[in-house]
Amino acid sequence: MPQRGDDFIVLDGRPRSEYANMTIPEAVCCPNAELSYRLHRLAPETSTTFIVRCAGRTRSIIGAQSLINLTARPRIFALDNGTQGWFPNDYSLRFNSSRFYPDVSAADGPLAGVRQKASDLPKGCRLQGITSDQLRLWRLDPTRTTYFFDVRTPEEFAANPATGAQHAEGGQLLQATDLYVGVLHARVLRYDIDGIRAPLIGSWLAQMGYEACFLASEDALSAHDLKHLRHNDLDTPLLP
């Protein structure tokens, strides 16, 4: 494809640390949860071919399907077997690469269509939208465990964390769910600022059998607003 001069972009769907450790030439780091959110900045032209890759195969497939689910781009592929299929064929790797995902704003115009598709995801799976009042009740419920995850990038979380939330980068919450969710039949609530990433990750968690919930778009809260969800001395994260 590069020899032909094709219009394409390779997207590495893993987090920054894994990407820097090893990737393939030309790949841009854009973790799976960020792909649809940042696509309009990565490649504005609708004719661009997208190739999602990872170290093996799972995140390549999930990333490519996530793009298919939330965008209308016609040419989206997963790199077969990722690096495990690339390196044994004597293709070179790149180390310490620093081609990272671009900054975007949740108010960017091109995201309107993506957000609409994300709002349709609950219709196809057991994905529950809740209100802030429901979240208040869950915080006070001693009979159920509720996990509350901020699924934005580490930079966004560090700059303006959602009060009471644990950080779990969206793609990793899917890839290594057992490292984050340790209680059977727990509620898994996710937070973003854009109405795209939380529903997307929730749709995958719901298909995996989890009770996945998100703050409904009409009742979405900013990180500042979440401070008002505290009751009495309940300032601890929503963990058992």
The gist of it:
Helix content is 30%, strand content 15%. The protein contains nine helices and nine strands. It is globular and about 60 Å long.
Structural class: alpha/beta
- Strand portion, in percent? 15-25%
Please mark out the parts with pLDDT under 50 across 5 or more consecutive residues, or reply none: 226-240
CATH architecture of the largest domain: 3-Layer(aba) Sandwich
CATH homology group of the largest domain: Rhodanese-like domain
Secondary-structure element pattern, one letter each: EHEHEHEHHEHEHEHEHE
Describe the biggest sheet?
5 strands, parallel
Structure description:
The protein is of the alpha/beta class. It folds into 2 domains: 8-89, 3-Layer(aba) Sandwich (Oxidized Rhodanese, domain 1), CATH 3.40.250; 117-229, Oxidized Rhodanese, domain 1 (3-Layer(aba) Sandwich). The chain contains 9 helices and 9 strands. It has helices at 16-21, 35-42, 58-70, 82-86, 111-120, 132-139, 154-159, 170-175, 197-207; strands at residues 8-12, 27-29, 49-53, 76-78, 127-130, 146-150, 166-167, 187-191, 211-215. The protein has a 5-stranded parallel β-sheet. Helix 3 (58-70) links the parallel strand 3 (49-53) and strand 4 (76-78). It is globular. The chain starts with 7 loop residues before the first strand and ends in a 25-residue tail after the last strand.
